[in-house]
């Protein structure tokens, strides 16, 4: 479990100036097992700021390569800079991250003004890989609206500087597969106030009060299964930058808003949840064991022959998910989803563990359920 210290601070009053190494040692003393401590952003220095692309003129050169000569507003302190950009996804109006001359980036990259393709390129418009926030090097990082204004400190806006503590979680410490659980231990270890995120008011505007119908045929394997339907969902809305970065620091990959929200809840509270496209569901959700000959294509695009011991999520058409392990493609949230049925359930550890091993399909959800979450 990777835990950003900044996320812990949301739920426990860590002393100001407490070194991450000391925090890790105190948590080890109360029973958590330290795997790794990583300090991010230590090598990021200099004027790394947000900028607004004013213009991006394509220019084709004798070697056949097309670049864009960009004018970028980087705020009142730095003014406007001309920058040559080789990415194809830059356009006027984009909010981007700009490394101005004098900036040091991860990997030892030093930024300076230089002549290239007939211009003095006075800085660099950055990609995820150059910032150390991802592996994408094909295009520059374009930030969602509301992420900041030109001239803002990009390292702060993107949470580039943080300490991440990684723990090896023993089977009897399943609660620590969440920021909530680690924060509670930190409060105990330090004698600091703990604020339980699970005690927050869960009422939500825009959510229908009527749950989607559910029938549980195996109450021993699934004693709790609740749903909530959210309508008016905008599938084009981006994941907030702060949420995407926290998910990334916790060791997962941001995908899309609906999926990221479910993963964020799981990482913070420890409770796996799953979302279905409501308009792709046919009839009530039924939790039952598999029947002879049934098959399911899971979200990893693998069609699986099901075993009679597999605990399933089904609808009128048949299997739509392996309970506590992975959902199916037939009800996957996609670009056209506007209504989402959210599942929160408890599945018994033994059937989940056996199903995950039978199909060689471990997941973040199964990792938690098979430990008793």
Q: How would you summarize this macromolecular structure in one to three sentences?
A:
The protein contains nine helices and 23 strands. The chain is α+β, with helices and mostly antiparallel strands.
Jot down its keywords.
9 helices; 23 strands; 5-stranded mixed β-sheet; 19% helix; globular; OB fold (Dihydrolipoamide Acetyltransferase, E2P); 373 residues; 6-stranded antiparallel β-sheet; Phenylalanyl-tRNA Synthetase, Chain B, domain 1; Phenylalanyl-tRNA Synthetase, Chain B, domain 3
SSE layout:
Blueprint: E1 2-4, H1 5-8, H2 20-29, E2 33-40, E3 48-60, E4 66-73, E5 80-85, E6 95-99, E7 104-105, E8 109-110, E9 114-116, E10 119-121, E11 124-125, H3 128-131, E12 142-143, H4 154-157, E13 162-168, H5 179-190, E14 214-216, E15 224-231, H6 241-249, H7 257-269, E16 273-277, E17 285-289, E18 295-297, E19 303-305, E20 311-315, E21 318-322, E22 326-327, E23 339-346, H8 349-358, H9 364-369
Parallel strand pairs: 14-17
Antiparallel strand pairs: 1-13, 2-13, 3-4, 3-6, 4-5, 6-11, 6-12, 7-8, 9-10, 15-23, 16-23, 17-20, 18-19, 20-21, 21-22
Strand content: 25-35%
* Helix content, binned percent: 10-25%
Radius of gyration: 24 Å
Number of strands: 23
Highest CATH level, the class of the largest domain: Alpha Beta
Structural class: alpha+beta
Number of helices: 9
Fourth CATH level, the homologous superfamily of the largest domain: Phenylalanyl-trna Synthetase, Chain B, domain 3
In whole angstroms, the N-to-C terminal distance is: 15 Å
In round numbers, the mean pLDDT is: 93
The second-level CATH architecture of the largest domain is 3-Layer(bba) Sandwich
The main β sheet shows up as: 6 strands, antiparallel
Structural domain tally? 3
């Amino acid at each position: 479990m990777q835990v950003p210290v900044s996320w812990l601070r949301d739920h426990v009053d860590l002393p100001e100036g407490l070194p991450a190494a000391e925090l890790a040692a105190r948590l080890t003393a109360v029973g958590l097992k330290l795997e790794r401590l990583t300090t991010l952003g230590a090598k990021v220095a200099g004027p790394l700021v947000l900028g607004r692309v004013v213009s991006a003129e394509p220019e084709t050169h004798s070697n056949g390569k097309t670049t864009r000569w960009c004018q970028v507003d980087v705020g009142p302190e730095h003014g406007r800079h001309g920058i040559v950009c080789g990415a194809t996804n830059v356009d006027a109006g984009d909010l981007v991250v700009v490394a101005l001359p004098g900036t040091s980036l991860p990997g030892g990259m030093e930024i300076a003004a230089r002549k290239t393709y007939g211009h003095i390129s006075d800085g660099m418009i950055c990609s995820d890989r150059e910032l150390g926030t991802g592996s994408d090097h094909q295009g520059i990082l374009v930030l969602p609206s509301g992420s900041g204004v030109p001239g803002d400190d990009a390292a702060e806006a993107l949470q580039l500087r943080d300490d991440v503590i990684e723990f090896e979680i023993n089977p009897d410490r399943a609660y620590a597969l969440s920021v909530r659980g680690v924060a509670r231990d930190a409060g105990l270890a330090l004698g600091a106030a703990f604020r339980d995120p699970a005690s927050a008011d869960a009422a939500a505007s825009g959510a229908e009060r009527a749950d989607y119908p559910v029938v549980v045929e195996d109450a021993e394997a699934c004693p709790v299964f609740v749903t909530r339907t959210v309508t008016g969902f905008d599938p084009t809305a981006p994941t907030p930058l702060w949420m995407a970065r926290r998910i990334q620091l916790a060791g997962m990959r941001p995908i899309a808003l609906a999926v990221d929200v479910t993963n964020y809840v799981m990482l913070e509270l420890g409770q796996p949840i799953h979302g279905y496209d409501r308009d792709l569901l046919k009839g009530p959700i039924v939790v039952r064991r598999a029947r002879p000959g049934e098959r399911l294509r899971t979200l990893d695009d693998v069609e699986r022959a099901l075993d009679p011991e597999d605990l399933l999520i089904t609808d009128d058409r048949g299997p739509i998910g392996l309970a506590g392990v992975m959902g199916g493609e037939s009800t996957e949230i996609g670009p056209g989803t506007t209504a989402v049925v959210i599942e929160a359930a408890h599945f018994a550890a033994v059937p989940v563990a056996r199903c995950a091993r039978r199909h060689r399909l471990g997941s973040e959800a199964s990792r938690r359920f098979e430990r008793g979450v």
